[in-house]
Amino acid sequence: MTDPDCLIGLDVGTSGVKAVAISQAGRVVATAEEGYELSTPQPGWAEQDPEDWWRAAQSCLGRLPEGPVGLSGQMHGLVVLDGGGSVLRPAILWNDQRTAAECAEIEARVGLERLIELTGNRALTGFTAPKLLWLRRHEPETYARIRHVLLPKDYVRFRLTGERMIDAADASGTLLFDVANRRWSADVLDALELPGEWLPPAHESTEIAGAGDQAAAALGVGIASPGPVSVVLGTSGVVFAALESYAADPEARVHVFCHAVPETWHAMGVMLSAAGSAAWVRRALGVDFGVLDEEAARWEPGTEGLLFAPYLAGERTPHADPDARGAFTGLSLRHDRGALWRGTLEGVAYGLRDSLELLRALGVRAEVGRVSGGGARSALWLRIVAAVLGLPLELTESEEGSAYGAALLAGVRAGVFSDAAEAVARCVRVRDRVEPDPGWREAYELGYARYRKLYPSLRPLEDR
Ligand SMILES: Nc1ncnc2c1ncn2[C@@H]1O[C@H](COP(=O)(O)OP(=O)(O)OP(=O)(O)O)[C@@H](O)[C@H]1O
Ligand SMILES: [Mg+2]
Question: Pocket of ligand 1, candidates 11, 17, 76, 235: which has the most ligand atoms within 8 Å of its Cβ, to mutate?
Answer without folding.
Answer: 235
